[in-house]
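Data card: per-record layout.
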Amino acid sequence: MYILISLVVSLVLFGLLGKTIKKHPVPFYAAAIVLVVLQILYYSFGWYKVMPKWFTMYVVNLFKRGAFSTVVFILVMYAGVFTKRNAVINHFYSLRGEMSIIASIFTLGHNIIYGFVGKKAYFINAIVNPSSFEWHRLTATYVSLAMILMLIPLFITSFKTIRKKMDQKKWKSLQKLAYPFFILIYVHTMLVLAPKLDKHFFSIILYSGIYLLYCILRIRKAIIDKNTPSRIKQSASFAYTK
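The structure for this 242-residue chain is written out next.
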């Protein structure tokens, strides 16, 4: 359910405000940071105990559980795999950098809450008391740490000011970290959801279908790109790298 709600929110946000986000991204980055800080305070000081349950479940949890950021990353993934584009695809393709930054901010917030806040504090306990974890939780925690190591350089180099200062070949080489990062999102999600198959069956099928289709489209694009003159390929990616 969270993935579907997050999809609607993401499509509305980036669909309706995409041009504004593209022209003036900083206020949206700042808003994302403010929301992350509020999330951390929300759980650190127990505000969730006095707030309506529906607010925690259907609003805060979209961001706390990483559903919103995951869906935004999925939109980024899909925007780059279509060989034929229409106005809608071009719209989201041009926003990949901004969407990635916003998704990264919320992902880092998700990891701060789960990693350091409350009794579970997965990152802390994975180091000081790993035996207290079930194997899938411990593995999911280590996968999260690996993802953060990949995410930080991807996040930093997504900013235009940083990207323009980098050698283009080095930047493109670094961006290849996005592929294992995207795959680890799926691995992490399955490690969290699969042990409760009866409860999360629909979400597991949905996530698996999304990733399977992405892999098919990505392989198809790689084959087409291999047989496409470099001049044409460069013009196709110009909107993102300029």
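Known properties of this structure: The chain has one domain: 2-241. The longest helix spans residues 197-226.

See the next section for split statistics.
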